[in-house]
Amino acid sequence: MLETSMPAVQPRRPELLWVGSGGWVACDPSLDATDPRRVVAYLECKDDRVYVLWVTGSAGVCEFGSIRDALDRIAQRLAPVAL
What we know:
Mean pLDDT: 87
Oligomer: single chain
Helix content: 10-25%
Strand order of the largest sheet: 1-2-3-4-5
Number of helices: 1
Number of strands: 5
Number of domains: 1
Order of helices and strands: EEEEEH
Distance between the termini: 24 Å
Largest sheet: 5 strands, antiparallel
């Protein structure tokens, strides 16, 4: 029997744009710079925490212990849906 394996789906890492004073905008790098859906979230680094305000998908604010944790969660949202 021939075994085939599908490559693991690699999540897209968000592009970060610095907006000053601990603030960043996370963007979907697969979308054109003029596409308003490109902005995924606003991140604020404050008091040793990272706050993520979601702009697309479900609304709300999430809190993370590190920028890496926040970026991992954003990358999960950018990952294509498995068929």
